[in-house]
Amino acid sequence: MSRRIKGIAYAAVTTVLLSAALGGCGLAGTGSGGREAQTSKEDALTIGFAQVGEESDWRRANSRSIEDAFSAENGYNLLFEDAQNVPENQIKAVRNFIQLQVDYIVLEPILETGWDTVLEEVHEAGIPLIVADRSLDPSYEEYYDAWVGADYLLEGRKVCSWLQKYAEQAGLEPGELKLVNIQGTIGSSAQIGRYAALEEAAEANGWTLLAQARGDFTQAKGREAMQELLETYPELNVVYCDNDNEAYGAIDAIEAAGRVCGRDIRNGEIMILSFDAAAQGLTEVLNGRIACIGECNPHHGPRVREIITKLEAGETFEKIQRVEEGIFAADQTVKTVTAEEQEYPVTVVTEELIEARGY
Ligand code: GZL
After folding, report:
1. Closest CA to 163 of 225, 240, 233, 217
2. Which residue among 54, 90, 134, 233 is least enclosed by CB atoms within 10 Å?
3. CA 104 to ligand 1 center in whole angstroms
4. Closest atom, ligand 1, to C-alpha of 244
């Protein structure tokens, strides 16, 4: 039972409140994807989860991780709202969670900004807020109890270090590298951090950064963006994709244009770099169509659940929790990458590794 709903049969309250709030499918007025509240034991904690969408392999793996962690069997009642990549839907979902008086709100913010009043409302309602995956602008830090997610600038620095070392070993002059960036959702912390690393590395290494194009973390938009970039910049030879699904789209477009994805830039191949390390992305590394992937780990369910368990028990925990992540390539041409004065080993992709990772 949500502890804010006292002495009333939980199932009845949930049904009444949820059907009022959700208006059939999805939260009233949001058009977002409301997933059925899992009926559960009366003493279950009610978790309101505002998810970004279903835009990528990463996101789907992330949603499974949250649903597994907060299952009815584990003693939770998960109210899952998919904002379908529309920031306004997330704000409405959070407001509905307040109305439902959930025990905890878990937010994976589409964008870093635009949260001014609604986070204040969560705070005034006395509902603990955990932010996961992407981060919020630092000005909002007082409004949440914890954040767990990735260091996107570090992810980008690792991938750019791989490119710098690969180019050096291949005898490529810095000026020979003609890069384009297919961007994730503009204003998301993942896009901001990964781009900052690219811009910094291009400047430091003398690479030519030709252009950016919006890919929105999806395969379809990634393909559209790649088609346009190939038409405008036929000289491009490195594509820095903000995630694997954009990379899949880039591969589609490059091959449709009769070009080859690979590492042999001198002979006209186009090198693809990416982030996430989903199974299909790693498979593309194995078959040589993606050169290097910076891992972005989606399994935040257990991490968020641990924070809630500690909050319930009155235990302390780190407020800002960055997840350790690797970097993948098809071989050890580049053995380690260097970022923020630290060496990171490059993991060679194998079929067994893909199998073992499970997403
Ligand atoms: C990163 C996450 C990004 C992934 C994309 O933490 O927010 O959003 O890199 C996903 O695949 O769409």
Report:
1. 240
2. 54
3. 23
4. 11
